[in-house]
Amino acid sequence: MAAGGAGAPLAALVVGMMPGRLNDGEQDFIDRIRAEQMKEAPTRVRYTWETDEYGDLTPYGWHTPPGNDMVRVRKMEWDGSRQAYTFTTEEDEPVTLIWTPDSSGVNVPSNTGNQTPLHIPSTIIVNPLPDNTQIDAITSPTPEEKTFADYILILPLPNIPPIYVYLNENKTSFVHGHKHHAPKHKSWKEIIESTKSGPAKFRPQTDISAIDHDVWKDGINSTKKQNWKLKEFDEIVGAHGGKETRWVVTKESQGTIHSHPISETDARKLLK
Predict the structure, then answer these.
(1) Ranges for the Pyosin/cloacin translocation domain (predicted)?
(2) Does residue 135 register a pLDDT over 50?
(3) Residue ranges of the domains in the chain?
(4) How many C-beta atoms lie closer than 10 Å to residue 120's C-beta?
């Protein structure tokens, strides 16, 4: 499956899909979806892309109780110009998903733009959804609410079951783990020292989200790395390699933008 449209460079879009039954015991929904042309269908588990402790996107499953278990059901339509079935998502920045039949005769590239391989674990953990979680069918989740951007897509072809797809389109969502956060209860001197052999760290009380936005918006593109930007700030923002630094690098991977302090020497190498 490929993607195109307003939100579509695949570097900014992650799609997960599960053909066949959504979950064990849910085969009865397949016939109901086809027969009744439902606009929504319930499923006991829904999926999202979450950023792990290393800054990588990883699929997570969520047990969804009644009332929070409804997934949008949509039919893919034939697009004669593409010689493929398509569906355009309903998020604020729509993306068109393209399903090309094997017999179409269209030469489809194996890579549609994403330069970084996805990490798909052999086992996807299914987590309980907190009772007080607010759920909306939108992208870019905040820490206070769990949101879903998922669909059940129906191809009007025989012997092809509905396909569950879940998306992450968070070009404007700057997601951070704690890898580069300053540890509590340590002095700044100790933190600087720790970066000699450990990951770079931002200074305590740094507004990391604001730096993310700033570097991605106004930073200089690296000449060495695709989708990397760098910026020098007026004040010390962190430590890298055992020294304080005013430089920050922001990297985009699979739609997630992640930044951390970088030494001036390393920054200038990336800008040569």
Answers:
(1) 35-166
(2) no
(3) 2-168, 188-271
(4) 10
